[in-house]
Amino acid sequence: MSTSTVKDNRKRVIEQSPIKKKLKDSTITKEDLDGAIANGIKLALKEQQSTLDSVVASTVRDAIDSVLTPVLHDLQMDIQATNNSVNELKAEVEKLAIAAKQTRDLVDSVQAAVREDRRTVTNLRKQLEQLTDRVTSMEDRSRRNNVRLVGLPDGAEGSDAAGFLRANLSKWIPALKGRDIEIERAHRVCDGRKSNSERPRTLIFRVLRWQDRSAILKGARQAYPVKYTQDNVTLLFFPDFSPATSARRRNLNPVLRRMTPLGLQPFLIYPAIIKLRHNGEQMMFDSSQKAEDFISSLPQKKSMYNNSLQKIQNETTTKLQLLFLEE
After folding, report:
1. Which of 59, 170, 272, 291 makes an SS bond possible with 248, Cβ 3.0 to 4.6 Å?
2. Contact of 174 with 219, CB cutoff 8 Å
């Protein structure tokens, strides 16, 4: 069969088909048909677009799930670990804050205790000074009838030191003649020097009456130098004080030595106060610094003072003479 014959048969079948007959018999216009076709095409395109959107969305979701989800998961784990670390640090900071508050409270309490202790120590120091002064005063009072004799050769008193002194005091000190001095006891004291020292040990003796002790010291000053004729040595008589009072009086010796060449006549009164009279005015100094300031305020005697200061530094005998000063 030829090709033209086939085409003619197909055309004939189409023209004789019921649908073709129906279309010929219907009242549908060509415009309506074109519009229907266009609407069909739009619906088909819309369905294809919806299908395409679904496919794209699914593809994007799959891409996100395959790529971003692990990254987001790791990031979430890192954030969680960071949050845990921050929480731990926060807990540590809170503990440190509590510890710091406790330490601050402890420091405050310690500072308060220290302040209280300082007040207590200050009060105790004042009480100790008062008690020391009282003990020193009591010791000085217990020694007020004592006399220290320096320079008497060791062994000169024999076995009866008190009898030896009663027999010789009036010979050494003429002012004591006719005075009945009762000596309670007498003994040598160790002053810390080596046993082979050439200087004899000090002899301390105690008289019964304080008036006798004052008479001995006053008479010794008047009769200076008092000589022990047997060995031709100088005897020195001093009052006996406690170590504390003796140290205070000894600290005033340098300024006393400087006053004497200036024509001043200072003397010590108990416990350690320099007393003198200047231009008819009685003056008292309880420290060497105050006495030094007084000396410096005497311009007319400055040159004499400077010369005497240089001279006194090379003298040793003057120091012994000043120990006679007594209230």
Report:
1. 272
2. yes
Q: Which is higher by pLDDT, 52 or 289? A: 289
Q: Residues 196, 198, 199, 202: what is their CA dihedral angle, to the nearest 10 degrees?
A: 40
The residue with tokens 């027999």 is: 167
**Using one digit for the tens of pLDDT, what is the confidence trace for 50-84?**
788 788 878 877 777 777 778 788 888 889 889 99
Q: What are phi and psi of 193, to 5 degrees?
A: -75, 165
* Spatial separation of the C-alpha atoms in residues 295 and 256, rounded to whole Å: 11
- Give the predicted TM-score (pTM) of the model: 0.57
Residues with Cβ within 8 Å of residue 213, at least 6 apart in sequence: 144, 145, 146, 147, 207, 239
Tell me the residue type at 104: R
Q: What DSSP state is assigned to residue 128?
A: H
Query: What is the 3-class SS of 80-112, one letter each residue?
Result: HHHHHHHHHHHHHHHHHHHHHHHHHHHHHHHHH
Consecutive H or E run containing 12 = helix 3-16
Residue positions counted in the chain: 327
Measured CA to CA, the distance from residue 283 to residue 266 in angstroms comes to: 9
CA angle 307, 312, 315 (to 5 degrees): 140
Half-sphere exposure of 243 (CA within 13 A, CB side): 2
Do 274 and 327 touch, CB atoms closer than 8 A? no
